[in-house]
């Protein structure tokens, strides 16, 4: 359905743009992956851009959902801040990290809108936002290289600055400038010319800007040339080879290895101050290349290619608190290089689970599962779950969302994975303790259906509870709570309101064990009192004969305490 033209750019336009851009990247994802040869030919630029934007779009939708169905809508500042934050925490790879900074740069200008009532901007404001996006992205890259997405972003901003008119006029000028710059990238970067392709990151940005035009005008733009079936996009410049794909991605990877390119990609979120991050940039710049550090206001996304992954993480620890650490090896077994070698054999069965803290992530991994870390307030998007299913590299996958609110997200991921030929069973676990119970009875040697039934049964037989601190005054099923009260939730409903963590936890545990049980599982968060686990273990020993207790350290998991009774 055609979009309603937007003379001004407001919160609704942000929401529309994110949705359209996600769709555009979804359609172009495989094509962009296929032409990804720089800085590493790992065939994932399109996927990384999609996952980054999916995180941004999900954050914007959450802001609109928070306003419900009332007449009031979020402000432009609310929407762009959510977009930028979502992209920052969900940024993947070199290209996704740069896209996150492009969106953040735009948000810095859009959030300060002064036109009218401050809830929207005009064409002048959009021009300024595109300029800030390009400049801030270039500043975030330690050593900018021409012929990349940075070049395309700068060209878009230059073209926008020469446009006079409303937001649609400015957006269309930026899009056309980006298209022209994209076509010229092989003339600026030799590796692109040898492969006969345009820059993959720049191709993704053109798709995002095309969606911006559609959001502002309601008109669908002509997309960049599609790749021929199974063949990278050719380039219409004199410097490009006449034969498309004259050099394979495998050759390019081999060439990079001969040149002594770094062995690992390291990415993490970092909580740190500006001065510490400045020192971190200098340190990481001496360790490797492709360094991109984006963010601000105490939260950063760090991306670098290095030979010593441990040193890159240690540098983050010295600067602040790194988390969501992802390390990818660029070895022959990990880089997607066009099929010159036989593919790694798939396992028969795997388990993919969403977990709320680093401690549980380690526990699940030790048990053989592929863990997806969900930090407080940062739930994984469906694309991230699809990536985890692919990473498990199995014919059959059992998916454990471990959160009632993630059920639909997990279902969408399972459906996508099934279209790729993977047999996926979704067990609707609502807590990590239910996932632990399911994993405990998992037997890969059983028939798939039987294994799923046993895991589902174990999860369903596990009652779950959590102890948290109320953030604000609100009505609950146990009465009115005040900010700072300790809440005990059993099976998702508030059952106990108290002033003390340990006492509230004991009351919750007693209520759960009144219905019987053989095993109590306690997952203790970092912010829980150190004595709470000992007190609860003692209470079980003294009051409930023949009931065993097992304790895990969950790390920073949101809830102070998770309790399972089975």
Q: Quick summary of this structure?
A:
With 566 residues, this protein is α+β, with helices and mostly antiparallel strands. Helices cover 47% and strands 19% of the residues. The protein is built from 19 helices and 18 strands.
Low-confidence stretches are: 225-259, 331-342
On the 0 to 100 scale, the average pLDDT is 83
Which strand order do you get reading across the main beta sheet?
Answer: 15-14-11-18-16-17
Quaternary assembly: single chain
Note the gap between the termini. Answer: 50 Å
- Main beta sheet strand tally, sense and closure: 6 strands, mixed
Percent of residues in helices comes to 40-55%
Q: Approximately what portion of the residues adopt beta-strand conformation? A: 15-25%
CA gyration radius, whole angstroms: 25 Å
Shape: globular
Count the E strands. 18
Judged by helices, strands and strand pairing, the structural class is: alpha+beta
Number of helices: 19
Description:
The protein starts with 8 loop residues before the first strand and ends with a strand. With 566 residues, it is an alpha+beta fold. It has 19 helices and 18 strands. Strand 14 and strand 15 form a beta hairpin. The model is unreliable at 225-259 and 331-342 (pLDDT under 50). The strands form five sheets. A six-stranded mixed sheet has the order 15-14-11-18-16-17, with helices on both faces. The chain has a four-stranded antiparallel sheet with strand order 4-5-3-6, sandwiched between helices.
